[in-house]
Amino acid sequence: MTTTTRRKVGIAGAIVGAASAGVAAAALAKRYAVGRMRLRPDAEASERFGELRGRDRTLITSDSTALHVELDGPEDAPLTIVFCHGYCLSLESWHYQRRDLRDSYRMVLWDQRSHGRSQRASAEDSTIDRLGDDLAEVIDRFVPGPCVLVGHSMGGMTIMALADRHPELFGDKIRAVSLIATSAGKLAELTLGLPALLSKVVHKIAPPTISMLGKRGSFVDKTRHAGSDIAFLMTRLMGFGDSKNVSPTLVDFAETMIRATPTEVFADFYPALMNHDKLAALHVLDPVPTAILVGDKDWLTPPEHSKAIAAALPKAQLTEVPDTSHLIQLERPGEVNDALRDLIKRVEL
User: Which residues form the AB hydrolase-1 domain (predicted)?
Assistant: First the structure.
């Protein structure tokens, strides 16, 4: 081996060694950070996440997809609350609302197609409009009287799709609506808290990258190890922002729901979310009381999106919750539940 070759090998070895040391140091720092978070006092350590159960039902939709539905609360209640969960979540994301409202109100909670315990749908049928049709069928089957619709994130978009495709339901059947941390459109313009230039790059590479991951979904899912530090940190950051007091048990609960959503489902719904635009349908909600809630630190559906919805609905009530991120119904259940109670009082029979 020549002197020049030995020098190149030595330099390459040094680079690899430095890179390996950097990766090891980053992994150690990440593990240390997660360890410190888990050692903090945890007020939710004994919370019964995922243990609340109702009366199980199955709805076979008009396109032959089996949806998992749970009924809870008193059957003879004059008003029903229908909860629509968000992207990569499940009906379990309404844990605190279900826990605190089930004694007083009849509730319908359902897993949107391809989520939770509902049947997987094809990519072609993974659209926001189809979710709106699903919601119409859930209401027709399981809501005997008037109801209040509550939607978080993609669930709010589902309600907007319902308004677009079934406007006749709003007023007599649907007496009020709550739109929580959601958007009427332009999700493809989100900065995700990144500098403008970096955000443009992310949006450019995201669609083909997510499409590629979807095509290799089975392989990718095998690498999504349960309880990984990276998954914990990502869920904490994107779902709960930079809150210093969020419960590690709560973060684990949210991460479990996200991890249970197959990568193919994540990829199938991504184009529908990015192309979502229902601003023109919001006028259908104007005759019914509408409560809009958003966290001021929400990176996924920022306050500007809720303000745009409120601008289209002059009679709606907009609440911006301070120091709160995207999973507001889990992070600030007291504020969300109080807002829902106030909304329900406006339409109670």
Answer: 80-333
